[in-house]
Amino acid sequence: MNDSNYCPHTPQEIQEMLSVIGISSMEELFAPIPSELRAKTFNIPPGLSEFETYDKMKTIAGENSSDMVNFIGGGFYDHVIPAVVDHLSGRAEFYTAYTPYQPECSQGTLQALFEYQTSICRLTGLDVANASLYDGATACAEAAMMALRITGRNRIIVDGCVNPFSRQVLKTYLYNLDVEIIEVPPLDGVLHQEALKLLLNDEVAAVVVQNPNFFGSIEDFSSIVGQIQSVGALVVASVYPISLGLLKTPGEMGIDIAVGDGQCLGNPLSFGGPSFGFIAAKKASIRNMPGRIIGETVDKKGRRGYVLTLQAREQHIKRHKATSNICSNQGLCALRGLIFLSSVGKEGLVEMARLNRDKAEYAKARLAGIAGVSVLQTAPTFNEFTLFLPKPAEAVVGALMKKGIVAGVPLSSYFADSENALVVTVTEKRTKKEIDLLVKELEVALCS
Amino acid sequence: MQLIYEKSIPGRRGIKLPTSDVPAASALPQALLRQEAAGLAELSELDLVRHFTNLSRRNFSVDTNFYPLGSCTMKYNAKVLENSAALFAPFHPMTALLPGGEEFCQGTLGMLYDLGQMLSDITGMDEVTTQPLAGAHGEMTGILLIAAYHAAKGNKSKKKYVVVPDSSHGTNPASAAIAGYEIITVPTAPYGDMDLELFKKAMNDEVAAVMMTCPNTLGLFNPHIKEISDIAHSHDALMYYDGANLNAIMGKVKPGDVGFDVVHVNLHKTFGTPHGGGGPGAGPVGVKEVLIPFLPQPRIVMEDDGKLMLENSNPCTIGRTAGFFGNFGVMAKAYAYIIMLGREGLIQVSEQAVLNANYIKERLKPYYDLPYDMTCMHECVFSASRQLKHGVHAIDIAKYLIDRGYHPPTVYFPMIVKDAIMIEPTETESKVTMDEFIEVMIEAAKTAEDNPQALLDAPLTMPISRLDETKAAREQNVCCQW
């Protein structure tokens, strides 16, 4: 046995242990498995050294095109990540612990997650938050299911401007339930409020909206929120945390449940994960929240400490009557979110949001100056906006990708009659030079 | 320790952001703006670093303490896995979803495809989806696949139930319930597994699926598993395998070979990726051929020329269970783990995980009640019933272990064992570490007889002692007030 495989025993130790157990071979340990059920093949290739493994991983990573300049979002965003995020979240004491079932030896994780919950409450202007969900799309589905539990109704209305992936995940989550999902088709890139009003009645559990929405439009839902709530339905809003440096909060709009994806808060793109989903709500609905929740309390001597609380909602206690099936969530990614927000800080987040908008507005004005290109103007935008090109967007994006620029997300894959529409994302990481290059290359692509 | 918000000084700044190289945009309308900035912490970078470094020191973790938390497989997480995952940090997932975008993502799509192939081989399945983001998310995905299978046969309204043993993980019934099924729970027999006769009585044509963990949460391999599968299939119910305990059987037995139709795999358990204080994990789901048409989209397929493509055109799919392709970074670590350990390494993992659990079981048997005294797989479950006579519960033994520098085993689970103490050492622990732990467990059993109060008072060495959980639940203070 030359390979360690992180199994430390020497052959002599193995013999000692086998004799304590009272058997003579390792094989006897597997005697409870009937011989006719034993694996007949096992085709995993032979192992590699640590060096060879890393080398192979480098080769695989090298098969992706690197150094692409990204003007794409769609739920994941290319933002700066302060160096402290990797270093502090990488502390092994956080990294290699698990769910803090034993609070006395888990105060590090517990206090950090309490601080994380606080940061989400303060960002969204709502009262309570949980200790994270899987991602933004599943958080949106969990919020809809929370509304079903609270209202006892079985109809969800979704604004067609919500991220199509979130809408798809919502449909999958509700696939086998007796729940009706109605989509309100977008009206020029914003919520079609009149169409929505016609659908409101006492059978609706929730209306799901997004701000800024998939087209990039910023909306103030304040007035429609009251009308939705007047029929006893809840309002769920998916929000983009960086934009909350500037934008009106879900709390200020009177929204009941806010959700979103926390990737933009210190988590790398990493081909789609891990990130985290967040959920925040009004205090009255805390018992219907999914997942883990950390609460403050004291010990016998009155010293402050933190515990997993309201566990009576959870699967390990309530089994099939639990409010969700969540066990592992995205704790470490939520910790990264907290470190990110604490590093950027109160003023920094405002500055970062402004930087995003400034860069996007610059790009928008420059791109709109190209002959034949126009901009969707229904609503103001944050760091994403919709362009209408004089030719199909898919071909244009394809041509620019070959030049190392990912120009945006063509809407044709997600919306009917939108062949020429392109959503462009500009974060604070994009330089003026990169934006100018996008403008130049887009002009070339449109002329050819 | 103070909260980070209590250390905050107005005007203090941490990270310096990029300077703008474009003109300032015109202001947004007032109605769209928040009234005041979010009350985030304001700290210098050094104060921030000290805060989180000192917080981290208030945790037990695998890298600092033996962590035999049963059912969670807290094995050592190799550092090279972290380096490997970091290689993929810059890749935007949306690139692959753009028309023609696959061409630019052959590395990442290829890795997901290969991981699926290897997990299929380990579990005996035909295809794997990597979308599910955690074990319980995989369970929900798997049950939805089963629901789609029954719906396609016109049996959606007929199939109402999911059968689970009473020893199952809480996530099993919770996942099935969330997916719209009613639950039938079958009790455990004295031989330590689902009672076969009661199972037969519970089965009927309205059962959609049977969810099992094998080895189960008592750490026992069910010798009747093939018979159970055959009975389930005779009622057109599909067999769901909860892969939480896969660490025990790699290369020894494949769930697919004993009749399971769907499997989820917890990469953060068996495949050595860190648990992160409660995630991220990853819960890829493997299926038999009959369920492939229902898999989530986009599905990664290999064309004849070896090129990886995304398929989005399947009419029977259950849709999408996550935003993109799953927790890719976690999968990169699991992939590196599998190729590094290889065939023999994975077999060695399972053998030594089982060896270690049986060693601890034999050594502690004289001191703690062992309700199911037989060869276990990767974990063993004791009961503190003998200690209860002295007023000492499983939780008190757990707290005593904390004072002695050990993360406690899982306690009070499985629920079918009174005051359960569930120990899963994993294969990465040395005999020396286990021997020391065993001595402390013996000492705890003796202290329970001689001086039970010492156990009831524990822990005494932590920054806090036992916390008032009732107060936390009553006051619901889950966010630091302004």
From TrEMBL, chain A:
Please provide the record's keywords in A-Z order.
Answer: Oxidoreductase
Q: Name one GO molecular function term.
A: glycine dehydrogenase (decarboxylating) activity
User: What residue range is the signal peptide?
Assistant: none
Under which EC number(s) is this enzyme classified?
1.4.4.2
For this protein, the record's Gene3D superfamilies field holds: Aspartate Aminotransferase, domain 1 (3.90.1150.10), Type I PLP-dependent aspartate aminotransferase-like (Major domain) (3.40.640.10)
Q: Check the record and name the HAMAP family matching this protein.
A: GcvPA (MF_00712)
Family (UniProt): Belongs to the GcvP family. N-terminal subunit subfamily.
| Subunit field text | The glycine cleavage system is composed of four proteins: P, T, L and H. In this organism, the P 'protein' is a heterodimer of two subunits.
Q: What is this protein called?
A: Probable glycine dehydrogenase (decarboxylating) subunit 1
Q: Which gene encodes it?
A: gcvPA
TrEMBL record, chain B:
Q: Which Pfam families match?
A: GcvP2_C (PF21478), GDC-P (PF02347)
**Entry cofactors:** pyridoxal 5'-phosphate
| Residue ranges annotated for the Glycine cleavage system P-protein N-terminal domain, each copy included | 27-296
Start and end residues of each Glycine dehydrogenase C-terminal domain:
350-449
Which UniProt keywords are given for this protein, alphabetically ordered?
Answer: Oxidoreductase, Pyridoxal phosphate
For whether the record's keyword set contains Oxidoreductase, the answer is yes
**Gene3D superfamilies under this entry?**
6.20.440.10, Aspartate Aminotransferase, domain 1 (3.90.1150.10), Type I PLP-dependent aspartate aminotransferase-like (Major domain) (3.40.640.10)
Q: Does the keyword Oxidoreductase apply?
A: yes
Signal peptide (UniProt feature, chain positions): none
Q: Which reaction does it catalyse?
A: N(6)-[(R)-lipoyl]-L-lysyl-[glycine-cleavage complex H protein] + glycine + H(+) = N(6)-[(R)-S(8)-aminomethyldihydrolipoyl]-L-lysyl-[glycine-cleavage complex H protein] + CO2
| Gene Ontology molecular function | glycine dehydrogenase (decarboxylating) activity
Known InterPro entries for this protein?
GDC-P_C (IPR049316), GDC-P_N (IPR049315), GDC_P (IPR020581), PyrdxlP-dep_Trfase (IPR015424), PyrdxlP-dep_Trfase_major (IPR015421), PyrdxlP-dep_Trfase_small (IPR015422)
State which Enzyme Commission number(s) the record gives: 1.4.4.2
Q: What does this protein do?
A: The glycine cleavage system catalyzes the degradation of glycine. The P protein binds the alpha-amino group of glycine through its pyridoxal phosphate cofactor; CO(2) is released and the remaining methylamine moiety is then transferred to the lipoamide cofactor of the H protein.
Tell me which PANTHER family the record gives.
Answer: GLYCINE DEHYDROGENASE (DECARBOXYLATING), MITOCHONDRIAL, GLYCINE DEHYDROGENASE, DECARBOXYLATING
What is this protein identified as? glycine dehydrogenase (aminomethyl-transferring)
Q: What is the lineage of its organism?
A: Bacteria, Pseudomonadati, Thermodesulfobacteriota, Desulfuromonadia, Geobacterales
Which gene name does the record give? gcvPB
